[in-house]
Design a protein that fits this description.
nine-stranded mixed sheet, single chain, about 20% strand, Spore Coat Polysaccharide Biosynthesis Protein SpsA, Chain A, 9 strands
Amino acid sequence: MPISIAIPFYNAENYLADAIRSVFAQTYQDWELILIDDGSTDGSLEIANSVKDPRVHVYSDGLNKKLATRLNEVTQLANYDFIARMDADDLMSPTRLEKQLKILENNPNIDIVSTGVYSVTNDLKLIGIRGADTKKIEFKELLFKKKGIVHAAVLGRKSWFLRNQYNPTLKIAQDYDLWLKSSLKNDLKVCTIATPLYYYREEGNTTSKKLIAAYKNERVMYKKYAGKYCAQLVLKSYVKSIIVFILGKIHKLDLLLNKRGSGVIDSELLQLFKNEIAVIKSANVSGLPVK
C-alpha cells in the first residue's frame, strides 16, 4: 500500500537534507515524497531539486502561504490513500512508516495514528522522550489537554484529510484547531503509540513569544469550540501566558520545556537511538552527498 509523504519547507537549508535522508532510510519503501516550498529565500529549494529519484516531487510557486495552506495543498497533490506528515527540520525513525501503516491496515475504523517522539538538539543530541499509548481521544480530553497528538508524526487516510481541512487563517496551532473541529463532529478516529518514531528538534524552537502567541490562538479556539468550558479554559490560558512571560524574562523557560521530554531513557533505548541516527545519516540519496 503506497504512502504519500509530505514535507512542506521554508528556509530549512540546514536540516532539509537530513529530513529527506530519513525518508530514504525507511524500511518501508513504497512511497512518494512531496516536497512543497513555501517561498524559501535560502538554499532549501536547491536542496530539494537536487534529489534525483522519480518518487520525489518538488512543488514551488515562490509564494509564502504558510503551513496550513500548504498542508491543504498536499492533500490535493497526494497520489495515494495514506498521507504521512513531517516537518523539514526533523527526522523519522527508519521503522516509522512500516509500523504506522500496519496499525491503519489492521484497524479500518482508525483514520489517524501518531507516535511518541525523541526530543533532540539541533545537532541531534538526545534530550528526552515523550508519548503515550491511546486507543481513543475524546473531545473533552483534547480541550483540557489530557491527551495529545504529535501533529508532525501523523500518518492518516487521505479521505480523512479531504473531509477535514486546515484553517488557512491560522499561522500557528493549526493542528489543535483541526483536532477540535473534527472531534466536535465525531470525526476524529485517532490512536497514538508511545514508541518514539519521530525525532523532533526543539532546541531554540519554542520561545516565550511563540508560546504566548499559541495561547492567544487557543483562546480563540476555546471561544469557538469549548461551550460551557470556555470561561474556565480561557482563564487557564491567560495564567499560562503570564507564567511563560515571567519565565522568559528571567531566562528560565527551560524549566517549563524540560517537562515535555521527561520519559525514561534506558541504555537499550539510547543505543537504538544512536543506531537509527547512523542509518539515517548513511542513507544513499542520489543528488545528496553521504554524510
